[in-house]
C-alpha cells in the first residue's frame, strides 16, 4: 500500500518514512502544497498523512484536493495545530483522524493500519491450504489461530492467494510490491522475503507445502 506523507519537517519525514517502510508501505513525501497536489494528480495512494502548516501552502488545501481527486482515500492529519478550530476544520473536511504532535510512533502506526483495514471493502475470504486470509480485516489465521505478519509479508501472501494455482514469478512480485516506488529488489532479497513468510505460515518451512518453489521460474501457491 502507498502512503502520501505531506510534512515540512525533514526529521519527521525521515522518521515516519523509515517506520512505514519497515512495515512494508511505500511512502511518497512532499513539504509543499503544490507539489503534494501534483502527486495526487499523477499517482494513486491508499492513505494521505498531512500536516496543516507547510513550507508553502496548507494541508487543508491538500485535503480538499484529495477529497476531490480520490474521495475514497482516507486522510489523516498529523500536526502541531491542535486547537479546537483546526481539529474541527480538518474533520469537517472529511479527515478520518486528527493526531496532535508530539505523537507516539506505534500508536500512529496502529491508527494507520486501522484506517486502511476499514477501507479495504468487502472482499471475500481467501484460502491457501489451512491458511485463511480475510482482506476486510487484514487478518490471517492458520487452523483458527491468528498469524501476525508485517505489512509486506501480508501483501506478499495476498498476492499468492489472488493467483493461487498460477506461477508467480519474481518479476511479478517486483511489479506488484515494489516497482511503483522505483526500487529494484534483487532475486536474493525476494528469496529472503519468501523464507520469512514461509516461517510464519508453513508447518515445516524447510519442506513448504503452501508456497512451493518452481525452480528457475519463481513460486506457486495452491489451495
From TrEMBL:
Keywords: DNA-binding, Phosphoprotein. Signal peptide: none annotated. The modification 4-aspartylphosphate is found at residue 51. Residues 123-223 bind DNA. The keyword Nucleotide-binding does not apply. Coiled coil: none annotated. Gene3D superfamilies: 3.40.50.2300, 6.10.250.690, Winged helix-like DNA-binding domain superfamily/Winged helix DNA-binding domain (1.10.10.10). SMART domains: REC, Trans_reg_C. Residues 2-116 form the Response regulatory domain. GO terms for molecular function: DNA binding. SUPFAM superfamilies: C-terminal effector domain of the bipartite response regulators (SSF46894), CheY-like (SSF52172). Residues 123-223 form the OmpR/PhoB-type domain. This is DNA-binding response regulator.
Amino acid at each position: 500500500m502507498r502512503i502520501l506523507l505531506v510534512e515540512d519537517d525533514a526529521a519527521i519525514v525521515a522518521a515516519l518514512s523509515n517506520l512505514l517502510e519497515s512495515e512494508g508501505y511505500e511512502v511518497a513525501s512532499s513539504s509543499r502544497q503544490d507539489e503534494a497536489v501534483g502527486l495526487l494528480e499523477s499517482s494513486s495512494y491508499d492513505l494521505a498523512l498531512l500536516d496543516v502548516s507547510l513550507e508553502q501552502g496548507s494541508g487543508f488545501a491538500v485535503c480538499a484536493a484529495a477529497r476531490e481527486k480520490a474521495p475514497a482515500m482516507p486522510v489523516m492529519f498529523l500536526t502541531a495545530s491542535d486547537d479546537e478550530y483546526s481539529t474541527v476544520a480538518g474533520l469537517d473536511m472529511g479527515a478520518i483522524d486528527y493526531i496532535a504532535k508530539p505523537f507516539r510512533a506505534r500508536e500512529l502506526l496502529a491508527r494507520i493500519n486501522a484506517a486502511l483495514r476499514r477501507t479495504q471493502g468487502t472482499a471475500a475470504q481467501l484460502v491457501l491450504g489451512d491458511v485463511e486470509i480475510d482482506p476486510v480485516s487484514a487478518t490471517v489465521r492458520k487452523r483458527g489461530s491468528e498469524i501476525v505478519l508485517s505489512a509486506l509479508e501480508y501483501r506478499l501472501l495476498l498476492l499468492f492467494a489472488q493467483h493461487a494455482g498460477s506461477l508467480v514469478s519474481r518479476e511479478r512480485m517486483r511489479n506488484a510490491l515494489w516497482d511503483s516506488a522505483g526500487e529494484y529488489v534483487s532475486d536474493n532479497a525476494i528469496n529472503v522475503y519468501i523464507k520469512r513468510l514461509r516461517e510464519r505460515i508453513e508447518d515445516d518451512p524447510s519442506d513448504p507445502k503452501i508456497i512451493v518453489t518452481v525452480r528457475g521460474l519463481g513460486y506457486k501457491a495452491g489451495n
